[in-house]
């Protein structure tokens, strides 16, 4: 055993605090963490004695590759305004560099350090870890800030925040004066907000010679950053990656989920000790895989070791997220087959979070990626093949602590021939309406000459300007209007912000606030596998005949009326955590409304107009997301003419499970006519002949015009969260958009023409009556 190992072992045996620090200073003669003018053993940030845990973690931290270059880094930072730092995932960039920066000229004592993260989960998880490393309470000296959740205080010196939040802060504080050093982390991810921050900070740096910028990346594309930041020095943290053996499948896999599960089981049965990391694309898929894996491995009984299967995705509650850092279970008996941790994760585990102990990686080659088609104005998340750079990063996760193996569930030919080298920057795949509104608010008018690292397509920028103009946020010259100013203050999409800002005019701002809050949190309906029917029935009880937005409003109202009670949520298959989050979002939106003196109001519930007003207010924001029911029975998106289907989750297209009918009609198809919804319990007999609801029934009524919240691209084009609206409202509320002189010829146009003619006739009639 090496002497170093012996030392470490003896260190961990000690619990007495003073002797731990005494040993530390002996072992680490060259230890450069100098607590200035603070007695040793006292935390310089809060004046409390360090805990034992602090010293334990300190040992681990000092073993991270970035610690070798701490002094060098601080010197480079001192000599330059911008520094680019590249290092393998897990080398300690995110957790250590901001702490080093705090020591730089005692920054932490006077002003703040910001470290951006593209993902909310990473911002929360990493800040917690760093608070623990610094032996302070999260939210005090170290905090985080993500949309709708600020966990920081006046004491905070180091703040982890999403890149989107830093952009928001810049709107109120254009020179970001509260910060002395800004660290843009995970720059290789090239998220939309990070790309905008690049351009913005370049300008800010020119105006603030005292500000320092550190750009951190896990990949070598950093040379591109170097060019962009006019030759800023590039520091490389030498990687300490162990070799990773790559395996490809012989033939393409038809079902990657099934193949991934099969591979995990095989590894668990045949391979030596080491944890497994599986990359999948989203919450549902991951939960499904976790369930199947647990079941299959349990079925194998004692011949295999115990496993801990842990999911990881962005909407997972923080406590569950922490589970990925727990150790693998011990073997059932000494010398028995090894226990394993199996982490099933989205792209989060690719570079944002490092999980130690992973030896096997399973890479099916897909991730959920944003796509945008400016021609038909559709932005959606699509399961798409990853890039070679991503595949490389994923494989790297297997070689952190020892040599590992990566199983790619695609062929080598496909890797070489089909995968792009790099993932396209998000700015080239996004609807930019929100970004353009932010930039306008930041005072950047000339978007064409803004210094984007990769300039977006002119068509995308044009589309964004057009949308903002239709919404009234920009005038015809492209200048921010008063309405646009207010809209930009809401951390929401422009459509939602517009609907909120105009809601007092429709006398329903209270309700629109609740709907906006519900739309801003994950799906609140639970549907456990073992109780799907009961869950569907529970959901149906909240169903509103006019659509899903009002169903969400029903849920919110019921939740409040029942005292925000968790057992009420449980009984009704509603996710309590989501409801609490929605309530929190609502309160924050109320605060922004109050800043602008916007009225909180409701139409009397007994009034006929109660729901009509809400629906009209929604339309005032979403008039560009309308679909029309054609005679063929399909919906077409208005103006863009895309065939879309109501998403199966909608309450609008609800067919009852059991019906009685009055008449059986045989024509080209078997129809049943005059039908009524009944409860299944009363039915004794049924036959197996396929019948269809007769077109005359009111049970299967699809509304002619709907607005939708989301466009979902899967095997079919779906619209999700849909609401019935009236054609007349389109021409009343958004005549500038429903101007038929620039409308493609279609059924919707003919209907609108008729509506306009009716309007004219009504006007003429009322004149003659007068
Ligand atoms: O940013 P980079 O990928 O270079 O590394 P890091 O995120 O700073 O992680 C450094 C070390 O801290 C890794 O060994 C992580 O496993 C560990 N870590 C942890 O134990 N718990 C966290 N919540 C975050 C990081
Ligand atoms: Mg990192």
Automatic annotation (TrEMBL):
Entry GO terms, CC: spliceosomal complex
Chemical reaction(s) catalysed: ATP + H2O = ADP + phosphate + H(+)
Enzyme Commission identifier(s): 3.6.4.13
Start and end residues of each Helicase ATP-binding domain: 74-238
Annotated Helicase C-terminal domain residues: 263-443
Swiss-Prot/TrEMBL GO biological process terms: mRNA processing; RNA splicing
Annotated keywords: ATP-binding, Helicase, Hydrolase, mRNA processing, mRNA splicing, Nucleotide-binding, Spliceosome
Molecular function terms, GO-annotated: ATP binding; hydrolase activity; mRNA binding; RNA helicase activity
Keyword Cell inner membrane: no
Entry-linked PROSITE patterns: HELICASE_ATP_BIND_1 (PS51192), HELICASE_CTER (PS51194)
Domain of life: Eukaryota
Gene3D superfamilies attached to this UniProt entry: 1.20.120.1080, P-loop containing nucleotide triphosphate hydrolases (3.40.50.300)
SMART domains in the record: AAA, DEXDc, HA2, HELICc
Protein function: May be involved in pre-mRNA splicing.
UniProt family annotation: Belongs to the DEAD box helicase family. DEAH subfamily. PRP43 sub-subfamily.
Entry protein name: RNA helicase
Taxonomic source organism: Zingiber officinale (Ginger)
């Amino acid at each position: 055993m090496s002497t170093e190992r012996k030392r470490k072992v003896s260190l961990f045996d000690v619990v007495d605090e003073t002797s731990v620090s005494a040993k530390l200073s002996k072992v680490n003669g060259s230890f450069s963490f100098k607590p200035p003018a603070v007695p040793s053993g006292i935390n310089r940030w809060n004046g409390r004695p360090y805990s034992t845990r602090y010293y334990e973690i300190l040992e681990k931290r000092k073993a991270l590759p970035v610690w070798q270059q701490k002094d060098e880094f601080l010197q480079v930072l001192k000599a330059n305004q911008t520094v680019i730092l590249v290092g393998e995932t897990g080398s300690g960039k995110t957790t250590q560099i901001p702490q080093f920066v705090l020591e730089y000229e005692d920054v932490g004592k006077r002003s703040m350090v910001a470290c951006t993260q593209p993902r909310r989960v990473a911002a929360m998880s990493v800040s917690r870890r760093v608070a623990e490393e610094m032996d302070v309470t999260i939210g005090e000296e170290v905090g985080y800030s993500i949309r709708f959740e600020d966990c920081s205080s006046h004491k905070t010196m180091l703040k982890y925040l999403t890149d989107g939040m830093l952009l928001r802060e810049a709107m109120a504080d254009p020179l970001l004066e509260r910060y002395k050093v800004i660290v843009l982390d995970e720059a290789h991810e090239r998220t939309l907000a990070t790309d905008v921050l690049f351009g913005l900070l370049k300008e800010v740096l020119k105006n603030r010679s005292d500000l320092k910028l550190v750009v951190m990346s896990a990949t070598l594309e950093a040379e591109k950053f170097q060019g962009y930041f006019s030759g800023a020095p590039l520091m490389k943290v030498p990687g300490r990656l162990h070799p990773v053996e790559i395996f490809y499948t012989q033939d393409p896999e038809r079902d990657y989920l099934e193949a991934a599960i099969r591979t995990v089981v095989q590894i668990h049965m045949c391979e030596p000790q080491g944890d497994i990391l599986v990359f999948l694309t989203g919450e549902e898929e991951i939960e499904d895989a976790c369930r199947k894996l647990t079941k299959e491995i349990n079925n194998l009984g004692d011949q295999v070791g115990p496993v801990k299967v842990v999911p990881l995705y962005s909407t997972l509650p923080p406590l569950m997220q922490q589970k990925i850092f727990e150790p693998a279970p011990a073997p059932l008996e000494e010398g028995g087959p090894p226990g394993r941790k199996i982490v099933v994760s989205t792209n989060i585990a690719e570079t944002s979070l490092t999980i130690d102990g992973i030896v096997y990686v399973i890479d099916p080659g897909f991730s959920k990626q944003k796509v945008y088609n400016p021609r038909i104005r559709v932005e959606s998340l699509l399961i798409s093949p990853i890039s070679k750079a991503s595949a490389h990063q994923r494989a790297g996760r297997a070689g952190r602590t020892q040599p590992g193996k990566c199983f790619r569930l695609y062929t080598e030919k496909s890797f070489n021939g089909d995968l792009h080298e790099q993932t396209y920057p998000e700015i080239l795949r996004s609807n930019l309406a929100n970004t353009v509104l932010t930039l306008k608010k930041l005072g950047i008018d000339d978007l064409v000459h803004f210094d984007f690292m990769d300039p977006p397509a002119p068509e995308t920028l044009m589309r964004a300007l057009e949308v903002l103009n239709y919404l009234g946020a920009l005038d015809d010259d492209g200048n921010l209007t008063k309405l646009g100013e207010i809209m930009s203050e809401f951390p929401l999409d422009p459509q939602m912000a517009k609907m909120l800002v105009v809601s007092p005019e429709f006398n329903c701002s209270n309700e629109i606030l609740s709907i906006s809050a519900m739309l801003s949190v994950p799906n609140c309906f639970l549907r456990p596998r073992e109780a799907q029917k009961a869950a569907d029935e529970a959901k149906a009880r909240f169903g509103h005949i006019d659509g899903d937005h009002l169903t969400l409003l029903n849920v919110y109202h019921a939740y409040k009326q029942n005292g925000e009670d968790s057992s009420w949520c449980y009984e009704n298959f509603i996710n309590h955590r989501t409801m609490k989050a929605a309530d929190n979002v609502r309160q924050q939106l109320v605060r922004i409304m109050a800043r602008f003196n916007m009225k909180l109001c409701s139409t009397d519930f007994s009034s006929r107009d109660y729901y009509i007003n809400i629906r009209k207010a929604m339309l005032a924001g979403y008039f560009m997301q309308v679909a029309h029911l054609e005679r063929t029975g399909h919906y077409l998106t208005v103006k863009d003419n895309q065939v879309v289907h109501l998403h199966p989750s909608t309450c609008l297209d609800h067919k009852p499970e059991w019906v009685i009918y009055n008449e059986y009609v045989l024509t080209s198809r078997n129809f049943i006519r005059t039908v009524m919804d009944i409860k299944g319990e009363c039915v004794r007999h049924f036959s197996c002949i396929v019948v269809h609801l007769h077109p005359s029934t009111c049970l299967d009524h699809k509304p002619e015009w709907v607005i939708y919240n989301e466009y979902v691209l899967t095997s079919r084009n779906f619209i999700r969260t849909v609401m019935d609206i009236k054609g007349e409202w389109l021409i009343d509320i958004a005549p500038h958009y429903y101007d038929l002189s620039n409308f493609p010829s279609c059924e919707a146009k003919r209907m609108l023409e008729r509506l306009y003619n009716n309007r004219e006739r009504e006007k003429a009639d009322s004149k003659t009556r007068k």
